[in-house]
Please model this.
Amino acid sequence: MSGQGGKLAGKVAIVTGAASGIGEAIAALYLEEGARVVVSDLPGGGLAERFGSRADARVVEIDVTADEAPARLVQAAVGEFGGLDVLVNNAGIAMGKAFEETTDAEFDRIMGVNVRAVFRLSREAVPALKARGGGSIVNLASIMSGTGGPMLSAYATSKHAVLGLSRGMAVDLGKYGIRVNALQPGSIWTGMSRPFMNDPAFREYWEKKAPLGRIGDPEDVAVVALFLATDAARFVSGAGIAIDGAAGVNF
Ligand SMILES: NC(=O)c1ccc[n+]([C@@H]2O[C@H](COP(=O)([O-])OP(=O)(O)OC[C@H]3O[C@@H](n4cnc5c(N)ncnc54)[C@H](O)[C@@H]3O)[C@@H](O)[C@H]2O)c1
Model:
């Protein structure tokens, strides 16, 4: 499905972290379904090569933690495409490090990218979403939003915070018709997980942990992000949605 007839025809979205993995899959699916999309990622990550030639995509290369990032991104959507309906806060970083070795700078960086930038960009997006009579914010939380994991204390902290932030935003923004939900993927094949997955024991653990018997693909997450962007999800807000092959409930 594409263009006029797509499920997102007429909608404008921002997707951060769109150069690779889950964000790239979400941006590609939104475009395929007729949305116009501001795609964003760090400079030099291949974003312009991937999406730059499309009339329905605008590339904004910026670090989401930059002071000016929220205004740049929302202005790109409103200025180039006339408004904003969907914000996908996907950009994120992971770090495998023992708790007692994690430095202040590492902790602050992971919270800055995974949490503070989500807070700031969402706040900036509210007036534009209100101006359309409502919209959808989709935040990338994690299976680690509800549990811990070895070498992942800072990451798990940040993803618990994303889930809490999403719930708080859903409560405060409901009166504007703005829905806010958190996606909680399990282990998904991307650049983020590949270094962990190179350890056969780690990979086998996650394949066995998921009763559906495999590691997920970015497209498994993108289809849920598509649903949340459509009006079919009109009464879904404040949810944390597991996309993990039941790994999170398999003890
Ligand atoms: N892969 C998994 O198993 C998994 C599981 C649960 C949740 N997640 C979450 O999904 C989201 C996407 O991760 P992914 O697995 O696709 O990883 P990825 O590394 O493939 O993609 C993340 C993207 O975010 C971008 N990014 C990182 N820091 C940035 C910054 N400061 N400014 C702008 N862009 C930045 C990266 O350049 C990259 O393109 C993340 O929030 C991640 O925590 C991933």
